[in-house]
Design a protein that fits this description.
The complex is a heterodimer of chains A (268) and B (242). Chain A has 268 residues and is mainly α. In chain A, 75% of the residues lie in helices and 0% in strands. A six-stranded mixed beta sheet of chain B has the order 5-6-7-3-8-9, with helices on both faces. Chain B has a three-stranded antiparallel beta sheet with strand order 2-1-4, covered by helices on one side. The chains are: A mainly alpha (268), B alpha/beta (242).
């Protein structure tokens, strides 16, 4: 039996079934504390990607000109989704370190920290998507029924990001370097993924390398669902691959994390 | 209720701690030198339901490690620990508090951390505020409260939990005398409710007053256990003889 089910059963046997509420409270607290003492408060979670979008849009739409329809939306959606991925993976480690005092004193299943941190990012993602759809409504494109597939894409992205966050957090207390290493990889990944450039400018022989990265596939699929006319990434086989990878990574990450988290109180 | 069988807890004391990858790589060739520190050695202990157990011993004798093992914060190196029932840890009061949030938010956060549901906390909310005597400070930020007030709040929330097992680790020394009296008063209540309490303290008066049975730890081993008077006397003797 994989260890995650075992610990969950033990937890329930202990009579503590309020983990859902704890996760929620932790996420809300995290969100509140993050924007406390700042004048603009929650607006920052919107302003950050918008400022990034503004800068990149200026450079790549005015100075360098990609020949591309709806480049604005293409870029904005790419940035939002990538930011979500990088936020989930990086913040979970920050939160884990921040909670080290609690970990040493109170028992609760350690996965709550990672899930709570991811929920904070989900709130940010939700706000960002609202902004995206405001831009979208000015663009004159209309939504199709197929746009509902966006939800599936976002779910794939969520499981992938959280699964990876579990893996990183499992190693983090023993190897603090992993935070710095991953920061560099997030930067690399940003440029290795077709976020600011259209995939058409990359030579076709490199495509298969770019799309080894499941994030690139998810981002492309999300764009096709909402903006594009292409359907290369909407094919079923692609999503079978994505669901398999993301859900697989989630459970592998969770059980790895659960195993490693037993010594967190000593390592952190 | 709580059973410990042959429990060992070993901490490895590295003489050269390797926290980063580089340090690990550099010293791969060299052998790691660890010293084994037995925080607990072959501990067998049984605490029955409704029992008030005291644990005494000098600093570093393993008292806190024992409580942390029961609270499941630490994993034993070997041996078995069985705990039946929800555990409310008083290991350190207010450890999950967020200074930037209000007292009210902190009650919900800390309560959730200790395993309460939203409804339970809401039901107990007025009682907690009243017990901590913080009516005027409900909407103040926690960081602006004095440390004594924070401890009172932490204690009140923990007391409000209806868990059958309480672990108390030398936490009452911080409050003022009034509050200490109140805390000791609530201990009497716990006893009446039939809750199981494991109480770690250097305050031998309190131990003698409340505990049914006392365990004396020395260097991670149970040196003696039994009736309160007998074990406390033995502890006094061991202090005097050294």
């Amino acid at each position: 039996m994989p260890s995650y089910t075992k610990t969950l059963k033990q937890d329930i046997a202990l009579g503590r079934k309020n983990y859902f509420y704890l996760t929620l409270v932790m996420a809300i607290t995290d969100f509140k504390v993050k924007y406390d003492n700042s004048v603009l408060g929650y607006l920052w979670s919107l302003l950050k990607p918008l400022l990034m979008f503004g800068t990149l849009y200026l450079v790549f739409s005015v100075f360098v000109r990609w020949e591309m329809e709806n480049y604005k939306l293409y870029l904005l959606l790419g940035i939002i989704l990538w930011n979500f991925f990088s936020e989930v993976t990086l913040n979970s480690m920050v939160l884990l370190e921040g909670k080290s005092m609690i970990l040493k004193k109170v028992f609760f299943p350690r996965w709550i920290i990672v899930i709570a941190s991811s929920l904070t990012s989900v709130m940010t993602l939700f706000l960002n998507m609202c902004v995206f759809f405001i831009f979208f409504s000015f663009s004159g494109i209309s939504l199709h029924v197929k746009s509902l597939f966006l939800i599936i894409c976002l779910m794939e992205l969520y499981f992938l990001a959280v699964g990876w966050a579990f893996c990183l957090c499992a190693l983090f207390p023993k190897f603090r370097d992993i935070h710095h290493i991953w920061e560099v990889f997030v930067q690399l990944g940003f440029w290795a993924t077709p976020i600011i450039y259209p995939i058409s400018i990359v030579h076709a022989k490199y495509h298969k390398f770019i799309f080894l990265n499941p994030i690139a596939r998810i981002i492309q699929a999300s764009r096709e669902v909402i903006i594009g006319a292409d359907t290369n990434f909407l094919v079923l086989s692609n999503h079978i691959y994505l669901v398999f990878v993301s859900v697989g990574l989630f459970f592998v990450g969770l059980s790895f994390y659960n195993r490693m988290s037993k010594s967190f109180a000593e390592d952190l | 209720m709580i059973t410990l069988e042959n429990v060992n807890k070993v901490f490895l004391l590295p003489h050269e701690r390797k926290a980063t990858l580089r340090q690990r790589f550099v010293s791969l060739s060299r052998k790691n030198i660890y010293e084994k520190l037995y925080a607990l050695r072959e501990v067998n202990l049984k605490v029955d339901k409704g029992e008030f157990l005291g644990i005494i011993g000098k600093n570093g004798s393993g008292k806190s490690t024992l409580l942390k093992l029961i609270a499941k914060v630490l994993e034993p190196t070997s041996g078995k620990i069985i705990v039946r029932g929800n555990v409310a840890p008083f290991l350190e009061l207010g450890v999950g508090f967020q200074g930037d949030l209000t007292v009210k938010d902190n009650i919900f956060l800390y309560g959730a951390l200790l395993g309460m549901s939203r409804r339970e906390i809401a039901d107990k909310y007025d009682w907690i505020i009243d017990f901590a005597r913080l009516e005027r400070f409900v909407d103040a930020k926690l960081k602006n409260l004095s440390s004594g007030m924070q401890v009172r709040l932490g204690f009140s929330i923990t007391v409000a939990i209806e868990s059958p097992i309480l672990l108390v680790d030398e936490v009452l020394a911080v409050g003022d005398i009034d509050f200490q009296q109140k805390c000791y008063g609530s201990f009497g209540g716990f006893k009446k409710d039939g809750r199981t309490i494991v109480f770690v303290s250097h305050d031998l008066n309190a131990v003698e007053q409340f505990c049914d049975r006392v365990v004396l730890l020395e260097n991670g081993e149970i040196k003696s256990q039994g009736g309160t008077g007998k074990v406390v006397d033995e502890y006094w003797k061991s202090i005097k003889s050294t």
